[in-house]
Amino acid sequence: ATPTAVMVGTGVGAQYGILIKGGKALETAHKTSAVLFDKTGTITTGKMAVTSHKILVSESEMADSKFLELVSIAETSSEHPIAKAIVQYCQYRLDNLTPPTTSNSNSNNNGRSEEIIFPTNKLKEMAKDFKAIPGRGLECIVDGCKVMIGNLSYINENGINQQDDHLSKQILELESNGATVVYVVVDDKLVGYVSVSDLPRQDSARAIELLHSIGIKCFMVTGDNCRTAKYIASRVGIPESNIFSQVAPKEKADKVKQLQDMGHTVCFVGDGINDSPALSQADVGVSIADTGTDIAIESSSIILLKNSLCDVYQSIHLSRIVFRRIR
Ligand code: ADP
Ligand code: MG
User: What family is it from (predicted)?
Assistant: First the structure.
C-alpha cells in the first residue's frame, strides 16, 4: 500500500470511531487469523450487579446485617469491578432499598439502573491490612477478624473446603447460568457467598458472527471459572474448545503466545490492567474505550471509541481493503 492509502485508511477508521495508532497496526490487522477476547468488560459490559447472597451459618453466628457490613467494609478497598458491585448491593440492602440490577442495553444510564453514591471513606478506614490478590480475591482485618473474599481456588489454597454437596449443587447452578460466585470466609470459616453477574454487550454475538464469516477463529480468556466462562461463550457463539478459563492475570499473555506458536496472527481484545501484557504480546492489541483502563489503552494499537466489538471486524476489514487491493 502507498503511504497515501495508509493515511486514507487511518482517516476512514477515525471517522468511524476506530483509532489506529500508525500504519504498522493497520497493516498487521489484515493478517489476523485469530481473535482472543477477554471476557469481563470486553465481551461483557463489565457492569456487574449482585444477584443474590447467602449466609451459610446460623443467624446467631452471623446476622444478615453483620454479613453485609463485613463484606462491604472489606470490598471498599478493592478496585475490582466485582467489588464495586458488591459494595453497592450491600449498602442498598443495609438501607432496605432494592439494589440495582444489571442490564446490557445502551440506553439507560450506562446499562445500569439507577445508582446511589454511598460515602465509603468511613468504611475504608474500618478495614486494616488490606491485600488484593490478583485473579483471586482479597484479604483484610475487620473488627479484629480475618476476612477473605474470593473464588474457590483462593479459599481452597487457604485450606478452606467447601464439601457440602447441597452447597456445591447450588453454586454449580448459579455458575452455569453465568454468575460468578465469591466466597466469604471469616476467621478461616466459610460463612457465606455472594453471586455476581454481568451480561454480554448487545452486539458481541454479532461481532463474533461477522468474524467467523470471514474465516477468523474466535477465542475467549478469563480468570473466571469454567462454568461461567462456558455460559458467556455460548451466549456469543464462541466454541467451547476455544475457551481459556481460570487463567491467572500473568498468564493471559502466554495464551496469546500459544496461539502465535500455532501459526496464528493474533489480535487480542481487552480492557483491564491485567490485559496489558497480552495486548503487547499480540500482533494487534485492541482496547475498548468505555471499560478500557489507561494502561490497556496505552498497550493497544487500536482503540474502539464506539465500544462495539463489531469494530474489531471493521478494523480487519478496513485493513484488508487498504493492504490487499492497493498493492
Ligand atoms: P477477569 O479476567 O475475568 O477480568 P480477574 O482475573 O480479574 O477476572 O478475577 C478473577 C476472579 O477473582 C474473579 O472472577 C473473582 O472470582 C475473583 N476476585 C478478584 N477480585 C475480587 C474481589 N475484590 N472480591 C471477590 N472476588 C474477587
Ligand atoms: Mg476484563
Answer: Belongs to the cation transport ATPase (P-type) (TC 3.A.3) family. Type IB subfamily.
Distance of alpha carbon 271 from alpha carbon 41, whole angstroms: 6
Spatial separation of the C-alpha atoms in residues 103 and 123, rounded to whole Å:
28
Alpha helical stretches, state H, the chain: 3-15, 23-29, 64-76, 81-94, 121-125, 152-157, 165-176, 204-213, 226-236, 252-261, 276-281, 294-298, 310-320
38 is catalytic: yes
Neighbouring residues of the ion ligand 2, judged by CB less than 5 Å: 38, 40-41, 271-272
pTM of the model: 0.88
Q: How many CB atoms are closer than 10 A to CB 149?
A: 28
Residue nearest to atom 4 of ligand 1 (CA): 40
**Closest to 72 (Cα-Cα) out of 30, 106, 40, 120:** 120
Which residue's CA is the closest to the ligand 1 atom numbered 14?
224
Q: Which ligand is nearest to the CA of 252?
A: 1
Name the amino acid, one letter, at 286: V
* pLDDT (tens digit per residue) in 175-218: 999 999 999 999 999 999 999 999 999 999 999 999 999 999 99
Output phi, psi for 83, to 5 deg.
-65, -45
Decide if 204 contacts 194 (C-beta within 8 A).
no
Query: What is the grid cell recorded at 223?
Result: 480468570
ipTM for the predicted complex comes to 0.94
Counting ligand 1 atoms within 8 A of each CB, the residue from 47, 84, 151 with the most, and so the one to mutate, is 151
- In the structure grid, which three cell numbers stand for residue 147, read together? 476476612
Helices (H), 179-274: 204-213, 226-236, 252-261
> Residue 108 has what pLDDT?
43
Nearest atom in ligand 1 to the alpha carbon of residue 228 is: 14
